[in-house]
Amino acid sequence: MNCEFAGYADQVLEQKGVTCKPVYWSERDDWTLAMVAAGLGFAFMPINLVKHPDVVALAVVEPEFWRQVSLVSIRGRPYSPAVGSLVREVMRKSWFGHRPERAKDSALAPAGAGEAAA
After folding, report:
1. Structural domain of residue 9, as residue ranges?
2. 62 and 15 both lie in a single domain
3. CB 115 within 8 A of CB 108
4. Is the pTM of this model over 0.90?
5. Is residue 109's pLDDT more than 60?
6. Residues 65-80: pLDDT tens digits?
7. Number of domains, the chain
8. Residue ending a domain, choose from 33, 51, 67
9. Domain shared by 113 and 60, yes or no
10. CB burial class (10 A; 0-12, 13-18, 19+) of residue 59?
């Protein structure tokens, strides 16, 4: 699985005295889940990807794993009503104590669907 957490997880596990040496690796989620189901190891993956009847997903509470997700659009292209609503809500919400940054040339500047709150 192409996971941006692999290096981070290795460091955290090592600090806890756990050493993991990858033996099997796959870019395909279904193959990774099949290997886990076969007892060949474990996987870090979003819970919505765990779709195998013999695999149990457990939430990792500590250490906290997170990822940055970006919302981008094409400048000047009108939004559909649904996308316009999503963009306005994203721009209006305070995320983790601060509002999203919006550059002068922001790709998220409204284009044909009303103005987004800054």
Report:
1. 1-67
2. yes
3. no
4. no
5. no
6. 677 778 888 888 888 9
7. 2
8. 67
9. no
10. exposed
